[in-house]
Amino acid sequence: MVQRKYLFPGVIELNLQAAQSFGVNLYLIDGGTEWALIDVGQNETLDDVIDLIRKLDFPLSKCKMLIATHADADHVQALASARLRLKAKTGAHPAAAQALEAGDPVQTYASIPAQGFEIDGGMPACKIDVKLEEGDEIKVGKLTLKVWSTPGHTPGQLSFQMGNLLFSGDNIYKDGCVGAIDAHHGSHLPSFITSLTRLRDADAEFLLPSHGPMFRKDPAILQGAIDRLTKYQHMADFGTCTVSWPLEDEWKRDILTGKMPAL
């Protein structure tokens, strides 16, 4: 048996526990009589993840739920296999469930055709047993995860509050970066800003993201991201994710009024 390394009471982060990278942060919630896992990672690391959980002396039969923060393949490619092997229920937002149950390779980032990128094994379709909505609660033994809908990076991204902890998915990272913004991915800048504002104002003390280190919530970091994304809404750089492009609007007005460009 391996000695458990708790990041916080009731929380083991499996990368830290194993001193091994699983590609994304995997949070095991230890409720005493049962446990749950927030994200499961990719197929190539699933054997190691399950072996580690077994060595930590968590009965595989006591898995309450395999929870998806969202439908990105790096987070949940192994969800279908884990569901079968652990005989556990899966949980995800309805929008994420649609992509996962369809095994949609583009929406799940398993495939980016324009860049010739493909994840080995693609995105296996996975049944989602529990559709998680804003305000739901996931009881894991003595612990409770409160479900937050935090779209923006993807339509179906969820965050989970447990006391003063917030499992924040790909909303924001310690360096102030945010999850990828991509129209094919379903990214939506106004929703992203709303989600970041909610995180900024939350009563959580610590953010536990899906990538990078966990960190004490800093409103200045969140506000910096909010300000940046607010500007992105009006920049051509972000294509169809933009709300408006002031330069193009002004140019159209000039064309209609016959105004020549200032050269």
Automatic annotation (TrEMBL):
The keyword Lipid metabolism does not apply. The keyword Cell inner membrane does not apply. Keywords: Hydrolase. One of its GO terms (molecular function) is hydrolase activity. Residues 23-211 form the Metallo-beta-lactamase domain. Gene3D superfamilies: Ribonuclease Z/Hydroxyacylglutathione hydrolase-like. InterPro entries: Metallo-B-lactamas, RibonucZ/Hydroxyglut_hydro, Sec-metab_biosynth-thioest. SUPFAM superfamilies: Metallo-hydrolase/oxidoreductase (SSF56281). Pfam families: Lactamase_B. This is MBL fold metallo-hydrolase. It comes from Gemmata obscuriglobus. The lineage of its organism: Bacteria, Pseudomonadati, Planctomycetota, Planctomycetia, Gemmatales.
